[in-house]
């Protein structure tokens, strides 16, 4: 399946112009793959139209072959189709799971709890399923395996009361995940119950859990849950099977939401955050579409003046320097070379200026950079924007989440401070100062 798309793309190699027919061939192959992956026919048609229109109308940028350019368009449109990952700030929140019987809610609750615990947060599962015999035991056991807090009450048959008591009992948790009951089909009773639980819980996020094998019925199911409680994100489970999960895209489209997590197994660790490029590769059965399009990106970078999204060293010289800036800069370093070379690219800052700085200000080894990256994954938005708020207790939480020693976290903060100071020096420098420094 992927190989035929690959074959079609290979046939275009070396062509200096793509005909309408060439583009049709590619679009047909993509359609075939997507339909086989259960993607809704209407969505596939929209995608095809966009790709065709753009491929015929847009000129490849200088230095890019027509084949690479079409690939790029295909990739961009696919990213547009599958969407970005649901935003999930690493902070206190309550998440409620909804979905049909057997879709994987209880398993997902434990998986998500485990995932949040790896980020240094303290999760708790609240089990409100009073319908399914054994739901309590199943959930409790999974919570134990995930090593997270759990609340349930096997003797209570009012799910709303369990939810209320559960919120109270898990007050010390950072992230509360409320699991709900399902039914064989979506009926009045389920909808009414889940609405009542939702009103009691007032979750920050409602996630719809869908089995990857769920075909076209995902759409109407999603519409019903959307109407009842409002869906903020989708979790696709059982991607370890043969199903590719394309059906879920209709649900995403229907609820105007995004995909948060993917589940790929029965253990609590079989969870990953949704990420467009991996999912697209899976849908198309093709491994490296993103990598292929990176060539175009490089060519575009060379011909175009800085992209808005990209890190621009000049931005850094104005205003605040956050940990996010530092991270972007670290990533750029990986692509461009060390910071002193990057600084050389800034007009007016070139020359031997960097030689004036203490050597260790720039000394970030690869290994430390990797550690820093992992550590920053465990930090909250607030901490990344303003590292000054990170004190003892936050440092400990970040250590637990990242599995890195406290010393490393302090190194990261230290490094940030040094770079910030250095940049302040640059900011304070007029042209005259700069020349004087160069002469020295
Ligand atoms: P719920 O009824 O929505 O709470 O669904 P459960 O969490 O009880 O899951 C139903 C079945 O699907 C269980 O046997 C789970 O072990 C299984 N399951 C859930 N998620 C996955 C997954 O990602 N992969 C596989 N292979 N099985 C899963
Ligand atoms: Mg369940």
TrEMBL record:
Highest rank taxon of the organism: Archaea
Alphabetically ordered keywords of this record = Cytoplasm, GTP-binding, Hydrolase, Nucleotide-binding, Ribonucleoprotein, RNA-binding, Signal recognition particle
Annotated Signal recognition particle SRP54 helical bundle domain residues: 1-82
Listed under catalytic activity are: GTP + H2O = GDP + phosphate + H(+)
Q: Where does GTP bind?
A: 99-106, 179-183, 237-240
> Which parts of the sequence belong to the SRP54-type proteins GTP-binding domain?
92-285
State if Flavoprotein is listed as a keyword.
no
Output the SMART domains linked to this UniProt entry.
SRP54 (SM00962), SRP54_N (SM00963)
GO: which molecular function terms?
Answer: 7S RNA binding; GTP binding; GTPase activity
An annotated GO cellular component of this protein is: signal recognition particle
Fetch the Pfam families from UniProt. SRP54 (PF00448), SRP54_N (PF02881), SRP_SPB (PF02978)
Record EC number: 3.6.5.4
Listed under GO biological process in this entry are: SRP-dependent cotranslational protein targeting to membrane
UniProt-annotated location(s)? Cytoplasm
Q: Does the keyword Ribonucleoprotein apply?
A: yes
For domains, the record's comment is: Composed of three domains: the N-terminal N domain, which is responsible for interactions with the ribosome, the central G domain, which binds GTP, and the C-terminal M domain, which binds the RNA and the signal sequence of the RNC.
Give the protein family: Belongs to the GTP-binding SRP family. SRP54 subfamily.
Q: Please give the function described in this protein's UniProt entry.
A: Involved in targeting and insertion of nascent membrane proteins into the cytoplasmic membrane. Binds to the hydrophobic signal sequence of the ribosome-nascent chain (RNC) as it emerges from the ribosomes. The SRP-RNC complex is then targeted to the cytoplasmic membrane where it interacts with the SRP receptor FtsY.
HAMAP family in the cross-refs: SRP54 (MF_00306)
This protein's assembly is summarised as: Part of the signal recognition particle protein translocation system, which is composed of SRP and FtsY. Archaeal SRP consists of a 7S RNA molecule of 300 nucleotides and two protein subunits: SRP54 and SRP19.
Q: What is this protein called?
A: Signal recognition particle 54 kDa protein
Which species does this protein come from? Haloarcula japonica (strain ATCC 49778 / DSM 6131 / JCM 7785 / NBRC 101032 / NCIMB 13157 / TR-1)
């Amino acid at each position: 399946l992927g190989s035929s798309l690959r074959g079609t793309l290979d046939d275009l190699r070396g062509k200096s112009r793509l005909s309408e027919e060439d583009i049709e061939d590619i679009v047909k192959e993509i359609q075939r793959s997507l339909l086989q992956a259960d993607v809704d026919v209407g969505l596939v048609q929209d995608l095809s139209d966009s790709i065709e229109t753009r491929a015929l109308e847009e000129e490849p940028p200088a230095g890019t072959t027509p084949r690479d350019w079409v690939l790029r368009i295909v990739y961009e449109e696919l990213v547009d189709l599958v969407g970005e990952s649901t935003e999930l700030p690493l902070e206190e929140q309550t998440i409620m799971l909804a979905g049909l019987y057997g879709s994987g809610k209880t398993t997902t609750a434990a998986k998500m709890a485990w995932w949040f615990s790896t980020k240094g947060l303290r999760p708790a599962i609240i089990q409100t399923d009073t319908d399914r015999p054994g739901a309590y035991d199943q959930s409790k056991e999974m919570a134990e395996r995930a090593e997270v807090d759990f609340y349930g009450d096997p003797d209570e048959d009012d799910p709303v009361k369990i939810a209320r008591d559960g919120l109270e009992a898990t007050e010390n948790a950072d992230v509360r995940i409320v699991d709900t009951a399902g039914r064989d089909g979506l009926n009045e009773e389920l909808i009414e119950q889940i609405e009542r639980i939702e009103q009691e819980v007032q979750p920050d996020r409602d996630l719809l859990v869908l089995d990857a094998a769920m075909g076209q019925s995902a759409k109407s199911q999603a519409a019903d849950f959307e109407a009842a409680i409002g869906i903020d994100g989708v979790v696709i489970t059982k991607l370890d099977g043969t199903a590719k999960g394309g059906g879920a895209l209709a649900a995403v489209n229907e609820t105007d939401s995004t995909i948060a997590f993917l589940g790929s197994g029965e253990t609590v660790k079989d969870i990953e955050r949704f990420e467009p490029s991996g999912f697209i590769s899976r849908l198309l059965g093709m491994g490296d579409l993103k990598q292929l399009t990176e060539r175009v990106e490089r060519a575009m970078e060379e011909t175009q003046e800085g992209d808005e999204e990209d890190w621009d060293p000049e931005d850094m010289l104005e205003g605040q320097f956050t940990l996010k800036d530092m991270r972007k800069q670290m990533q750029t370093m990986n692509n461009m070379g060390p910071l002193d070379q990057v600084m050389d690219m800034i007009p007016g800052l070139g020359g031997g200026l960097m030689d004036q700085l203490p050597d260790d200000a720039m000394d970030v080894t690869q290994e430390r950079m990797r550690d820093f990256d992992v550590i920053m994954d465990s930090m909250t938005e607030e901490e990344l924007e303003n590292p000054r708020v990170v004190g003892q207790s936050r440092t400990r939480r970040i250590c637990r989440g990242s599995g890195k020693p406290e010393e490393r976290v302090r190194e990261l903060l230290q490094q940030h401070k040094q770079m910030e100071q250095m940049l302040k020096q640059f900011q304070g420098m007029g042209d005259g100062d700069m020349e004087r420094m160069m002469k020295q």
